Amino acid sequence: MGFGEMEPQFVCFTKRLSRTDVRRNLEIPNGALFLPAGNGVMRVRDRHGVTYQFVASERIGRRRSLTQDWIPFAAAKTLEVDAMLRIYWSGDGNEYVVQEGVQLFGPHIAWLTL
């Protein structure tokens, strides 16, 4: 999604990345929406057409995290600690989109599809 495009309607969650998120797995915030049930697969296609498969893994205590292709994705996109990330469901099956927030000026953030 570039400048001037519509906001996604099915935002799963937004979060600032931690060291664990960048190096091991992405911890899913409590209250995230539109995620697959159980240890469901989330298919993410980046803006270059490369497809990644994340697994929304359930952990002890009902906490969830993204695993499988998450680390290769984070490395390929050179994600860093403190980056703002938004994941949303496309509204079609298990297709998802990942965006990074870019601070423009003041409180304004542009969301760019990775």
TrEMBL record:
Q: GO CC annotations?
A: nucleus
Which keywords has UniProt assigned to this entry?
DNA-binding, Nucleus, Transcription, Transcription regulation
Q: Which SUPFAM superfamilies match?
A: DNA-binding pseudobarrel domain
Give the subcellular location. Answer: Nucleus
Main localisation: nucleus
- A molecular function (GO) term: DNA binding
UniProt name for this protein: TF-B3 domain-containing protein
Organism, per UniProt? Ilex paraguariensis
Taxonomic classification: Eukaryota, Viridiplantae, Streptophyta, Embryophyta, Tracheophyta
